[in-house]
Design brief:
- By secondary structure, this protein is an alpha+beta fold.
- Among the domains are: 152 residues, Beta Polymerase, domain 2 (2-Layer Sandwich), CATH 3.30.460.10; 45 residues, no CATH class.
- The protein has 22 helices and eleven strands.
- A seven-stranded mixed β-sheet has the order 3-4-5-2-1-8-9. It has a two-stranded antiparallel sheet with strand order 6-7.
- The longest helix is centred in the N-terminal third of the chain and has 16 residues.
- The protein is elongated.
- The relative contact order is 0.06.
């Protein structure tokens, strides 16, 4: 007899979400369909971890059910008819609905061929037992747990276990996801799963750079301590297979931890990426950018990081004026400067990098080109020259007010500084 987790589910989900999933079950039952809560939210229900990314699998037509729910609940509906999926968005949450499907892998690493299926087909295509549980939402069976692969037992034992021996062969990105879940949840790989992971690590070579970049970015963006994933990946031989120059050593861990201490209010993923490649030379980095097909802004950030690191000794000079620091750092992206601030071992260079980020990068003259023309500065290159001199004077603290700027400009016109 199936375990029923209705009381747990009703206390776990916020009232608006609970109301909607119950309505989904009622409408699906009326339409002769089946609907189930699946995936991460079921896992996190048992772990008592908040997760309101709601995924529903529909035995039937997910798009049709989504239209019915949208009409009744005023949700913003987005439909992907080709894939049999839909998204319902509300002010504080969203719900994804997908038609149950089965997947067939033509060769290792290839994207699967997808066909409509039943719930059992949909669960076997998932990555790990702890993500392959479902909860029935139909009124007559509301709360029944469908746990075909002992996911709940693996949660209790703190294990990450694949569902079949060829799981990593079919999709080697599961190797990286296994390490993410293991480190995030403080679990361990089930013994046979670890053996198969080590056996199949070379299958990462069957995955496109775009897909690998996506998984890499998930590690950097979604994991609270991504250095733990990289350390584990290095120990298992995964990191070398992912890209030979990558390291998951304690030095990387120290840099990532310092990043979190320094930058509490900004996204850290790109800074982490810059630190990941900080020790590369430009040739290694160029190959890395090409292999992972990095988008322009990310490619620029990592390239600037490595180039700035190579010239950072020029900032190791206590006599540099603020305007000189500004001129030196202005060509580099902010993320590259932040990464080098984390990584540098020079207190003087660190001081200059911090000064640029916290102050110099935002210093601007109060006077503009029109103001200078009104003061009699000749139109053309001279305006730019005066603005540059004015900017440097403000950077160096020579002038601090609009009146001071006006006096500075008059002094320049009369042959002064």
């Amino acid at each position: 007899m199936a375990e029923n987790v209705r009381p747990k589910l009703e206390s776990y989900l916020p009232p608006p979400i609970l109301k909607l999933v119950k309505e989904a079950g009622e409408r699906a039952s009326q339409l002769g369909m089946g609907v189930y809560l699946v995936g991460g939210v079921v896992r996190d229900l048992f772990l008592k971890r908040p997760n309101y990314d709601i995924d529903l699998v529909v035995e039937g037509d997910a798009v049709r059910l989504a239209h019915v729910l949208a009409n009744e609940s005023q949700g913003k509906l987005t439909v992907h008819s080709r894939f049999g999926t839909a998204n319902l968005r509300y002010p504080d949450f969203s719900i994804d609905l997908a038609t149950a499907r089965r997947e067939i892998y033509g060769r290792p690493g290839a994207l699967p061929i997808v066909e409509p299926g039943r719930l059992v087909d949909d669960l076997i295509r998932r990555d790990f037992s702890i993500n392959a549980m479902a909860i029935c939402l139909m009124p007559q069976r509301f709360g029944d747990l469908i746990d075909l692969y002992q996911g709940k037992q693996d949660l209790e034992k703190k294990l990450i276990r694949i569902l079949h021996p060829d799981s990593f062969v079919d999709d080697a990105t599961r190797i990286l996801r296994a390490l993410r879940y293991e480190q995030r949840l403080d679990f361990r790989l089930e013994a046979d799963t670890e053996i198969l992971l080590r056996r199949d690590v070379s299958k990462l070579g069957t995955i496109s750079g775009d897909r690998l970049r996506h998984e890499l970015y998930h590690i950097l963006m979604k994991e609270p301590e991504p250095e733990k994933v990289f350390a584990r990946a290095e120990k298992l031989g995964v990191l070398k297979q992912l890209y030979p120059s990558l390291k998951g050593n304690s030095r990387l861990g120290q840099k990532f931890a310092r990043t979190r201490r320094l930058y509490k209010r900004i996204s850290l993923a790109t800074i982490y990426l810059c630190l990941l490649v900080h020790e590369f030379n430009e040739n290694e980095l160029g190959q890395f950018i090409a292999y992972f097909n990095l988008p322009r802004t990310m490619a620029e950030a990592v390239l600037h990081t490595v180039r700035l690191k190579a010239k950072l000794c020029e900032l190791d000079n206590p006599k540099l004026k603020p305007s000189e620091v500004y001129r030196f750092l202005r060509p580099y992206s902010a993320q590259a400067i932040r990464a080098n601030l984390v990584a540098t071992e020079s207190p003087i260079a660190e001081k200059h990098l911090k000064l640029y980020l916290t102050k110099l990068s935002s210093v601007k003259p109060l006077l503009n080109g029109d103001d200078l023309l009104k003061m009699g500065v000749s139109a053309g290159p001279q305006v730019g020259e005066v603005l540059k001199a004015l900017h440097e004077a403000r950077l160096d603290g020579v002038i601090k007010t609009r009146k001071g700027e006006e006096e500075f400009v008059r002094s320049m016109r009369s042959g002064g500084p």
